[in-house]
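Here is one chain, start to finish.
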Amino acid sequence: MTSTAAPTAPSAPPPAALMIANVRLADGQRVDVSIADGRIAAIGADLPREPGMSIEDGADALLLPGFVEGHTHLDKTHWGLRWYRNEVGPKLTDRIDNERRWRAHSGHDAGAQSLALARAFLQMGTTRLRTHVDIDTDAGLRHLDGVLATRDALRDVLDLQIVAFPQSGLLGRTGTADLLEHALAAGADVLGALDPALIDGDPVKSLDLTFAIAQRHQKPIDIHLHEPGEIGAFTLGLLLDRVAALGMQGQVVVSHAFCLGALPERERDALLARLAQLRVALLTTAPPSVPVPPLVACREHGVVLFGGNDGIRDTWTPYGSPDMLERAMLIAMRYGLRRDDDLALAFDCVSGTAANACGFEAYGLHVGARADLVLVDADTLAQAIVARPVRKLVMSHGRIVARDGALVGAWIDAGAAPGSTSAGASFGHAADTR
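Its structure:
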């Protein structure tokens, strides 16, 4: 497959033995972290220093696991480009049509742009990421090609899951289903879908075809469900019927699920019970202006609810940031979380719960977990979420990739095309200069 993205960064093994000394866990415990072959080998107070071990002094910083972005659109972003003037109409179809026209006429480069934003995520502490990529009958697999190249360029330090996403729906444009099959065969990890009733107009046919494609390729599903109220509940019920009938428990994510925030409690709770039974997870971006799945009720019913940004600086929205501490703060604000222990629930939406929901393995701060670590100057986790301090250190796969808010070493220019300006040279100022 051809690509506009860059040659890959040099692949090198992580340091054989490294210790992050003098750091604090979220519970206040002071510990050292011993790392070997990219994994946490030991974590505890006053660990022994082995001969030849490199020591990194954490200087009493707060230790966090690498962050997880559960839902974004790397291929769409304008990150680092000139400001896009948004004059699009109010309907979902207005945004879809406007974006297709703009991308076709502007020559938007999904490879270069996804690489710029992925590196910004890495710099700010995200080491695992799920991105939806448009599979379009006009562009074919061009956007996918670019994001596949970004995944390859950052393969040593960023786990990047790709969702093959039919942004215009599955049924409305002839050839979309075939393109989705080609995308899954080419390397996409997950099958996407969009509003089977309001976009496709035939939720039974749309869902039947979606599940058939997923089963042929043995891939999980992540569906955008913006449909409100009773319409969304009807579609969600149809989806859950298929999960049960086809044995796809634990293999489906419903993104947005606005309907669950607007239903009467009895009807909502019946759906939550089915979601929990079938292990169907929910993704929220915690938008301020539409209903959202209820966090407390989801947890009470055993439904997994995790978080993500959605689009960042694209034709759909001027908002968004590759800082998952900011997203945790926005989740906390949307759900009225103020106590320190409640803020920890918001962080879980962009860390452990998100990793589990997306199927990212060996995650966390425990022996055997992959050494994906973030150090920040904060007294507590709640302060880190609210103040969002500069990342003192970011480690991925046992490699130090960023220090004091900037990428370091081989990752300064990882994936940058020969002769081009580094996509990461001004990450710290990108939001202020566009």
